[in-house]
Design goal:
This protein is mainly beta. Strands 16, 18, 19, 21, 22 and 23 form a 6-stranded mixed beta sheet that branches. It folds into 2 domains: 5-154, Immunoglobulin-like (Sandwich); 165-309, Immunoglobulin-like (Sandwich). 4% of the residues lie in helices and 57% in strands. A hairpin with a 3-residue loop joins strand 21 and strand 22 (269-283). The chain is built from 2 helices and 23 strands. It starts with a strand and ends with a helix. It comes from Basidiobolus meristosporus CBS 931.73.
Length: 342
Amino acid sequence: MTFSSIATGESASGVQLQIILRENPIVLNGSPEESAGGVLCGVLMVTTTKRIKIKSLSLLFEGTSRIKVPRAESYQQTLVFHHEWTFLKQETQLHELTPDGVYEYPFELLLPGNLPVSVDIAKSEIKYQLKAVVERPSILRNIRVAEPVRIERVSSALADYVPCVTCSGRWANSLRYDARVAKHHYQPGELLAFEMFVEINKAIFCLTEISLSIIQVVNYSTQPDCYETKKLCHKSRKVPIYGANENLDYSMMIQIPPDAHADCHTELIELSHALMVKVKLIDKMKRKWWFYIDLPITVNTPTQWELSTSPPSYQYPSPPPYDEKPDTCPTPATNPALLRSL
């Protein structure tokens, strides 16, 4: 058995406490309404180097949210999920652990499919954590260890999504444009390719500059009509002056920031991204004009990307192909006694 996450806590009292997880992050497949959930599975391991006495041994899995209230210096804190295992209960007599002992306590928990995913953005978060505690007699300090658990969601295969994002329109009845990005889904650190075709119909305007920005948009359940936007990165480039009856084919690359948070849609926090394009122009009077184009994009975690593009294969062989044959009815066994009664 292989494990993907281990947290270790040591104490001078001769006890080592470890939380060993089978999978971390835990991936929920499908939407909150259709997901069958996920399994939190692992082992709590206690290793001793000398004889000790303890009162109890417990493990807690807890999910909490801390959501900013927009336009106010306050937060809304909520308990999202709670489950506790007690491996050694507190009794009248202390539990004694032998020296050089290794004690393993397996645990497993089915998580509901509608759990909100883990989020960690400025001033707001949804986090999950395992906490193990060895409670010792009152004069001795308890031994603790904690392990963060990340919950992610994969809604469906990326191949089912729109392969590219496009936007077409006219501005001031003088300019026509077609803008596009090659695909909808990206990973942090990946390059985004932007393309744009511009046709200027009137000589009073000239194109001067095109700039790109990756925008993060956050919406909180504490105030649904309030959105917070943050510019993650920006890139601009001067373009040749184009006048009437001139066409421009323009392309540009911008990198998704390596530390960009993945998109998420929960009842508590919604986080999304967009490519904001700013087109600058100048008229004959040297007055500056501009307009914006908004192209929605999605940022996925590496785990979401891997599972969506390459779903895990089953280890068991597929069933044999169906052999189409005419249905036949087996001849019933003959009961001599029944025949004699006819």
